[in-house]
């Protein structure tokens, strides 16, 4: 294992064409299918970062703010923005793209935590996160702030206490 890895090394982008088998009766993406794509993208980002097998430990709150319609392309982007000793936090964004016009809109964002595993399936140490460029540091800061704001909104919405 390397001692450090960069945010850029973890960056992952996937695309999926929304076909009928992945839609509901309104011809929009099934929420579970979108979550599945997000989980895969986050797992790839965490594995690229750590050079280890990684498993999902948790996923933060998800709001579906815009539907993905039949025939549109779902663009799923993920990157590592924070790490613990064995855990890796990944921001995953999804947007819908009209393949004919190129028009895009944001559909959802969530934050995942993955745990890196060694060959025996035991949690293992991950590299430290480095953000050597200003752009990487900005993405990291935006993700940390976005996660904080999202969690505060959930607390406020449901009357929870910290």
From TrEMBL:
An annotated GO cellular component: cytosol
Highest taxon of source: Archaea
Query: Which sequence ranges form a coiled-coil region, renumbered to this chain?
Result: none
The protein, known as: Acyl-CoA thioesterase
Q: Name one Pfam family in it.
A: 4HBT
Biological process terms from the Gene Ontology for this record are: acyl-CoA metabolic process; fatty acid catabolic process
Q: Which UniProt keywords apply?
A: Hydrolase
Domain HotDog ACOT-type positions:
8-120
Q: Per its record, what are the GO molecular function terms?
A: long-chain fatty acyl-CoA hydrolase activity
Species assigned in the record: Natronocalculus amylovorans
CDD domains given in the database record: BFIT_BACH
Q: Which InterPro entries match?
A: Cytosol_ACT, HOTDOG_ACOT, HotDog_dom_sf, Thioestr_dom
